[in-house]
Amino acid sequence: MEAAQTEWVVLLNSDVYPDEGFLQPLMRWAGMADLFAVGCRIERSDGTVEKVSWVRRDLKWGALSTRPLRLEEYNQLLERGQAAATLFASGGSMLVHRGKFLELGGFHPIFEPFYYEDVDLGIRAWRRGWQILAEPASRVVHDSGQTIDRLEQTSRVDRIRKRNKLFVAWLHVDAPTLWLLSLPRTVLKAFGWLIKGRWLELLALGDALRQFAAVRAAHVVIMDSSSHTLGQVMKIVRLAPWQGTDTR
């Protein structure tokens, strides 16, 4: 990213296949002063639209809950030639403002080697007051997880995914929410995992707890540079009007 010479940069995973002309619908939003990124319409090879194409979430009991992709509503955006606010753009297929990306420090290394780094990046961008759009007219094909699953053991991938999901909440919830809701909820879930013998979840929790201090230190840095809380971000994304003129 630092070597790029352009204001806007496209990030594409090696196993993502963009349609010809996919860039033009993304670039039409580049004139928005507060725009951070634009995400694509991500389809599997069977035509199924991936839910990360347009993401809206709620904050419940100190955790991020996913709202299901409403495909009919998403397709209305395409029919009207419009775009909508999304919590994050998939890191494997997005247009991003180079300067803002570097100002945020890029993807946080605590999420290495994979998963949820784009979720965190999107939340940090919104907390700065920048916008992220979902653009359904820009289509790419990606069968999610195939490359990672081919190169890594499934159990290791799942363990890292579950650990990083905890990281996102711990990075962004405030202290009262963390201690009164997030952690007690996690403890209760851990007892359930123990009773049911769900060792993978318990191992992932242990991995996360070993880095708890580092995560909360990163939380302080995020708070110092944020203009919005996590709850405010959820509401902004959920209630933001669709962008662009209805072209029907």
Could you describe the 3D structure shown?
- This protein has 248 residues and is of the alpha+beta class.
- It folds into two domains: 8-147 and 227-239, Spore Coat Polysaccharide Biosynthesis Protein SpsA, Chain A; 152-224.
- It is 46% helix and 17% strand.
- The chain has ten helices and eight strands.
- It has helices at residues 23-27, 71-80, 98-104, 117-127, 146-151, 154-172, 175-196, 199-210, 212-224, 230-239; strands at 8-12, 17-18, 35-43, 57-60, 63-66, 84-85, 93-97, 131-141.
- Strands 1, 2, 3, 6, 7 and 8 form a six-stranded mixed beta sheet that branches.
- A hairpin with a 2-residue loop joins strand 4 and strand 5.
- Helix 6 (154-172) crosses helix 8 (199-210) and helix 6 crosses helix 9.
- The longest helix is centred in the last third of the chain and has 22 residues, at 175-196.
- The termini are far apart.
- The mean pLDDT is 93.
Write a brief structural summary.
The chain has 248 residues and is an alpha+beta fold. It is built from 10 helices and 8 strands. The mean pLDDT is 93.
Descriptive terms for the model:
248 residues; Spore Coat Polysaccharide Biosynthesis Protein SpsA, Chain A; two-stranded antiparallel ribbon; six-stranded mixed sheet; 10 helices; alpha+beta; 46% helix; 8 strands; 2 domains
